[in-house]
Amino acid sequence: MGNAQSAANTPQYVASVVFDNVKFQLDYEHIDSGEGLLLKIRQKIDVGNEVDLLVECSFAGTSLPTRITNKDSKKELWNLFNNSDWKREFLVKRKNIAQPTTVVETKPLVPMASTSTTLPPALTGDNSFDVMISYQWDHQKIVKCIHESLKQEFTVWIDLEQMHGHIVQRMYEAVSRSSVVIACYSSKYKVSYNCTKEISLADFLRKPIAPVHMDKGPFDWLEAIAPGVIYVDLAGIDHAHREWKSKMNTLANEIRKKLKSTTMQPSDTLLDPLAKWLKPVNFAQDVAAYQKAYVEGTRTWLIQKAHQEFLSSRVIWLNGGAGVGKSVMTWLLSQNLPSGFVLGSRFFCRHNDTLKNNTKSVILTTAYQLSMVTALREFKSHLIELMKFYETEVANNRKGLSDLSAADIFTKLIVAGLNKVTSMCEKVVILIDALDECGAQGTPERSDLLNIIQTESSQLPEFVCLFVSGRPEADIYTSLSNLGALELSPSQEENLQDLRLYVKYRLGGLWQRNQSSAEKLSEAGVLLSNKAAGVFIWAKLACDCIDNLPISATEEDILKMIHEFESGLDGMLTNVLRDSYPIDSSTEDYHAVVGAVCVLQQPLSVESLAKLLSIPVSRVNVAVLRNRYILTINSMLLVVVVHKSIPDFLTNPTRCKDRFYIDKEIGNLRLARNCFSTLNSELKFNILNVEEKFFYTPHADIPNFEGLVLSIPDHVHYAGLYATSHLLLVKETRKGILETIDEIVSTKLLYWMELLSVMSRFSDFVGVSAALLAWCSWNNGSSKTLTLRLLSDAKRVCAQFGVPISVCALQVYWSALPFSPVNSTFHQTFASAKWRPKGKYPALLQTQGIATQWSPCLCTCEGHTAFVYAVVISNDSDRIVSGSGDNTVKIWNANTGKEIRTLTGHTGSVYAVAISNDGDRIVSGSLDNTVKIWNANTGKEVLTLAGHTGSVTAVAISNDGDQIVSGSYDNTVKIWTANTGKEIRTLTGHTREVNAVAISNDGDRIVSGSEDSTVKIWDANTGKEIRTLTGHTREVNAVAISNDGDQIVSGSWDNTVKIWNANTGKEIRTLTGHSGEVTSVAIINDGHYILSKSPRESFVWSMETGEQRNAMIFIGSSSKESSCFTIDSGWVKENEELRFWIPFELRGITVISDTRIVSFPPPVDGYVTAAFIDVSFG
User: How far is Cα 687 from Cα 702, in angstroms, rounded to an integer?
Assistant: First the structure.
């Protein structure tokens, strides 16, 4: 493209302006985003034979310069660059005025006619090219020869004439749609405005650059764009030269290499079995980016301080606010560790990439990188042993590595593995950058990572050191302070010195190019550094703006711009956005593209983003370029924000008060709608298009399976994983989305399962479908009943057929569909002749004797090796906690039935468990006479409460989590402080063992039930007995208190349930009907009903009347009405219609939550299992 406009014999863009019946024709060279250049004569001034035209130039839509030149003399008449109001008045001087004409209107800007029939390839649709040639117009002749040599093998974009339409858009599209850019460097190329913008665009878009030297240069800054790249020297050579063919072969080889590097291939690391198992994140491109961003000589203080601190501390925290350059510093330290230290691993967390803000990814990547350290051979052997063990476990339908909690993975892989290293002379450093970007404060991801760092690092061997960086946010500060981490941060003087070096480096090239004085350079550097106030991102944005000034900008222009910069990141961001979007320009694409980038769950390429947003690639291209101060295309060709502080600003209405505020809900709404539309249009049977002979073949055995998965477009991958995530962030019901969801679920649900399976993410479908079900239900029945029933069935399919579907995606059709209950909505919908996938689809396996309804058992929880004595459900119904005769407490995933973790420490059977309201603490009571408090997120023991002299058979936690109450076989009740474990007081009065305890909602009263047949009410504040409730004739096994504290319910071995007035101690009524001892009681449905359980039946009673409600169980929910269930001889009915049957062996200990019955049976055939029964599915 180059300086085409400077050649007099080539077509020119012209503007015809008329004043006083005199027509003036000006040619110009401009870059335009689509809104055009307007020339309007304001005033004519005659000075001798010269005519000065005072012209108003209004140029909206870009901050790039416009240059107007005299057509005849080729002299530049004016150079227009961005300013605040986007209007300039300037003089156009012309001698030899054109002849008068009668034309009186101003003609629009149009390209002059071309006499040539050769045009560059059309940049329409999705055209793409192997190569684009960027050159300066004077070298057109030899460039045509290069084109002739290459076009036999490659598709080549070349501007043989000039670009048509809007130059910036065509330039951007030409570069962005080409895989490789050939840059024909020359002395004239270096000073050509269009050429320098072209090569800068290629660098911005991370395009591989193949340099060709057209003359001897010098090329200065051009060489820095593609350092270390082999170039082809054509200086003094033409197509007739004897070396021409050799030179073209060299160039073609370079192009082939670069094309190969841009083609997506399965990662080489996945050839390593450990890498295939652990799936580590590859940070090679991130490291290359930090290396490129680093300015030599800066941050030397960090290396010196870190070397000193590592000698005295095993944990160092690099602390700093937003934009101070912590990530580059972390990279720098990894390259400059002190003598005697070796880099074990480094992980760079990123807020907008789920692979880089995931605690398990941090652990698995760290484990893999540690295995690559030569001196850690025992550690690598340990990982290989674990890999073989878990491969066997998965093959036998038991839990694999992915089923473990993050804390357990860390313990089993890293802690256990490193402790097997017998001899290590050097210290091993583990680096984790940007802790604040691993989830928001308070989220499970962030809490898990901080808990692991705080609690597990003490178990690592002495030769391991930890270096972390992150903003000083409350949870990070607390965790690292508790760990005793040494805090590292630059002094004000150190930071200022680094900023000055950085600014000097950034401005140096521009200053040298403009031949400005060193004194002015120093003045500009000091001014910029002081205004940056220690924030490198501010300095970067300022330097980016200065870099964008035209070549002709003077040092006065630069200093003026620096003086006009506002201090503070908010002001700087507002200014650059206003410059990019003048007051009269549209921000539609800004809100679409930038808004999406701010809320994406993981980054996407320009092309994928365009498809997901349903807007042309060209518009996304222009939007990315226009917002180049805040967006960038990273080394993986993904569009990302330059820094996390930018979305923090843009999405905060109190900081970003301009029209540039990004409403997250609107962004999530758009992405949710388009994700579901993408799924609706792209999901299909056999999405990988595997040959029919591989229909039943496991993924691992399908040839080129990873390549087939990569062939699925990225926006389809994204939609499959994150459509529901975006939907959950949309508060208001949107009818259009509901209709699309209904269509997908009723026609393409199996295809969605297949998609996630081939992506090795089928385990995520449990959460995806559950969240979608919750959202659709929350919309007050706006979704069709069929949708709700199918999504509910999807949970059962995942639980029952997860193993075969994970191994082979098409097993969703071969196994799940034919073997699902014949009367289930899932089977009825997709096994019918009406529904058949398009394409080759064998007939379904014909089955007989299959159950008509889903089994009442959602999942079987295997793991305990002795009787299960106690079970409790978390408030959110996501976790189940059990206590067993095997001395352990186990936490289970209530959606899948898989064990999350095992809590070990008791030396006797665990008889009682409780979980706090927030789900963070678990309390257990044991035959070993102790009460233990556990961290539910890490499984670590927090405190042991010792004081009872008999087995602890009952525990409870107050609503605020501050107090714990325990009942024991020593006939006492004890109250403990949950934070310290100190005993507050002992309540004495029972004459036999205490079997049950409960605490009122306000924490003022405690109720206990004992084998002395009594119920006692105690004052929790004084420990004094308030009254004793007598009436039962045998042991009291269970007690409960109503929400308002006015009523107490008790269950006894005398087969009765009693309701008591808590204020008077009077018995209100006795409920009879059980045929055996009452083992548990609960007050449900906001205190209106009582549920009681004995070995053979469950009853529901009216609290008000004591009437048995036909043994109906009312399960409370967030909807306006409750579902009504009855239990009759094991059958559970919904509104008198059969739903499922509970086998006798599952009628053991039962606890009711809002949506589930949880039942732990006695051991059968040597196995102890736990089952939880979903009572809300349709």
Answer: 14
